[in-house]
Write a structure and sequence with these properties.
Layout lengths: L7 E3 L2 E3 L6 E5 L7 H14 L3 E5 L3 H13 L4 E4 L7 H4 L5 E4 L13 H15 L2 E7 L5 H6 L4 H18 L5 E6 L3 H14 L5 E3 L9 H13 L7 E2 L12 H14 L14 E4 L10 H12 L9 E5 L5 H7 L2 E5 L3 E6 L2 E7 L3 H15 L1
Parallel strand pairs: 3-4, 3-10, 4-5, 5-6, 6-7, 7-8, 8-9, 9-10, 11-12, 12-13
Antiparallel strand pairs: 1-2, 13-14, 14-15
Helix pairs in contact: 1-2, 6-7, 7-8
Length: about 375
Amino acid sequence: MGLKTRKIKVRDLVIGGGALISVQSMCATRTRDIDATIRQAEDLRKKGADLVRIAVDNKNDVTALAEIRKATQARLVVDLQENFLLAESVAPHVDKIRYNPGHLHHLDKRRPVRDKVAWLVSIAKAHGIALRVGVNCGSVAPEFLERHNGDHVNAIVESAAWHCDLLDELHFTDYVVSLKDSDPEKVVACNKEFSKRRPDVPIHLGVTEAGLLPDGVIKTRIAFEQLIPLGIGDTLRVSLTLTNAEKPEEITWGRKILRDIEEGRFVSVPDFGKGLNIISCPSCSRVENAGFVDLAQQVKAMTAYAKEHRLTIAVMGCRVNGPGETDDADLGLWCGPSAVTLKRKSISLGTFRYNEVLPVLRKELDALVARQ
């Protein structure tokens, strides 16, 4: 429990101030597929999801969201990412809005970030909804990366702290903050430092792009088992690469990890991550080809021979964190609707069909292994 943080409310759910840690997930269906999204939101709610997040990218999604809201009892969070301008349209249909500080510069470029946040706050106040300031390693605001010479941990913490100060100046306190990375040790470092800076602010915990089972749960445990016993963390998500049908497993694992920590069972692997590290984004509605999940599983199987080598392979299914995460990886697969862009760090090695990319990936991995 985050005993030091203040309490906020998301509809009837209390977050922070010693309340039970809430567990959430995100729909992986296309938001405009109204029936499928309603089914998944209800499946997640019945599995125990305290909050259900939905991505909204355009006006068609907003129209669908209005219908989804009518048909589910789930507490809905909308994830705007780049398109913060949709906030006013979605606010009547949700209980919380998540905005990403690293994406506010994409639209309405001449308008200062401070003014954009003030506008979001005015909407949240008008509709009585909460906000999440979601800072992510794959999309840190460029000015903070420049200011901290590419040091992601400091850039993430400072970005989050700056936005908290701004929200406080705007006399808005119904917000939580998340500081996420695909490296669990960086998640620990970011959240410890932020918690020292702002012990009053409720924290949403997660390891972003934790990936496939069982590795994704291990990475998440490494972070959660170090933070939650310190009182850091008021709500959480276990972000796994799963098929649509398996999505409620995020809730199952979240509850299990919390139960294990409460009962003193610490089962993360201390030396995990010293060899090959495969990161893959949690399947969500922004995945542009459902074959991304199958490809991630194939990459894991094919690369097992290199498990002792300290290399990172990123398999990313959408445009939101795909560029940043694949730029930082030794080898990256950025998966589009019909093709996969293979990268070595930020260098593109070409674009391939889903059924053509594995042999090319194997050749590049062989070369990296040989050099080590």
